[in-house]
Amino acid sequence: MNENLPMTDLPAESLTDRRARLMGPNVPTFYRSPVHIIRGEGVWLWDAQGKRYLDCYNNVPHVGHCHPRVVAAIAAQAARLNTHTRYLHDAVLDYIERLTARLDHGLSQAIMTCTGSEANDIALRMAQAATRATGVIATDNTYHGNTAAVSQLSTRRPPIGGRAPWVRLVPAPDRLIAPGQPAGDAGARFAAHVAETIAELQAAGYGFSAMMLCPVFANEGMPAAPPGFLDATMRAIRAAGGLMIADEVQPGFGRTGSHFWGHDRMGFAPDIVTMGKPMANGHPVAAVVARPQVMAAFRENFGYFNTFGGNPVSAAACLATLDVIEEEGLQDNAATIGAYLLERMRALHHPFLRDVRGVGLFFALEFFDGDTPATDFTGDLVEAMVARGFLLNRLGRGQNILKIRPPMPFAREHADLLADALQQALDAARHG
Ligand SMILES: Cc1ncc(COP(=O)(O)O)c(C=O)c1O
Question: How do the domains of the chain map onto residue ranges?
Answer without folding.
Answer: 31-63+329-431, 69-327
